[in-house]
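Trying the structure run again after the queue cleared.
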Amino acid sequence: MTKEEFKEARKKLKLTQTGLGEELGVSNRTIQGYEYGHQKIPKTIAIILRQKSEAVNPVQLGKDIEMNVEKLKTLTLQQMAHFCLKHKEQFLAIPEMKILIDFERKDAEAKLMEQHIILRNTRNKGE
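Done. Tokens:
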């Protein structure tokens, strides 16, 4: 990672040098050293910073995705679903969507577990 990439990643995360230093467990002087090219950026720091900055998406940065419905008389659920799938990453970054999806996933896991227990008990009674 170059010093320019390092600085760009920090800015993408909307962190100050001090803030990034706190996130990475190093001093802001170390961050300055990386950005000015006075210190070599360790591979582990580069990997962590890349992962953090790549995880940031437009919704987290306040750039909402809008669906233009001016020319539509009605908006169907199918059209909405298609739009959401087209913008999947932004859609999944919405906190309420994450909560809903996690809830549905846990509910489905609970139902599977319940079916497994019933099936196992049925088999045990038959033996």
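The chain is about 70% helix and 0% strand. Worth checking whether this holds up in the mutant runs.
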